[in-house]
C-alpha cells in the first residue's frame, strides 16, 4: 500500500524506485504550476547538469512494465501513467531541486520546500521496496517452503524478518535483497539436510534446549549490545551477526508448542531485576 502526503493542500501518493522517493515529469509540472513540455525542454537544454542515477532514473522495457503494474495494483494510488509510454523519467530530490532552480518562481521554490519536508524525507518510505524489486527473494522464499517440511509461508517470512530485524519484508533495503536471497538458500540447504538425517528424541530435546539458550543470548545482546558497541565498535560489528543469525536459525529448533510462550517470555523479561513476567517454557 502506498503512502499518501499533502502537497499544496492536495493529497498525493509517494512513489519510490529502488527505495528512493521519486516524482514523474507530470507530477513535477503539476507541483510547479507549469506544463510537462516546459519541464522536458529545461531538461533537454541542460542535459549536462543532470546525471542519471543521481538526478533522475530512466526506465524502459520490462522494468517500466513492472513499475506501472505495481502502481496499478495500489488501491489508493493517485498516480496515472499512460500504457502507451515507452520510457519514463523519474526525478529524485536533487533532480526536482534542479528544475525548481531553472524555473526560479515562488511557486516552484515553495512547493520544493514542501517536497523536501513531506515527500522526499519520509523515513517510512525510504526503507521500503517495490514487490518487483523483491522478486528474487520471493522466488527463494517459495523454494524454501516447497523443500522444507513443517514450515509454512508465514513462518518462512518470519525467519527472514528476524534475520534482518524487520517487521515487514518490504523494509529490507534494496541493496540487502541479494544478501537475503543468499540467506534463504542457506536455510534451504540446512533444513534439507536436517530432514534427511532424522534425529533421535534425545538429540531433538538437546537441540531444543540449545536453541532456547541461543534465543535468550540474542535478547541479552539486543538489550546490552549498544553499550558494548561504544567500548569496541569493531568487535561489536563482528559479533552481532552471529547473535542475529544464530537466533534466526534457533527458532526453527524450538518445539512448536512452546514457540509462542517462549517469545512472550523473552519479550517481557526484566533484565534489570532478572524477573520473569511470563511462565518460562520447560
Automatic annotation (TrEMBL):
Lineage of the organism: Bacteria, Pseudomonadati, Pseudomonadota, Gammaproteobacteria, Moraxellales
Q: Output this protein's name.
A: ORF6N domain-containing protein
Q: Where is the KilA-N DNA-binding domain?
A: 13-102
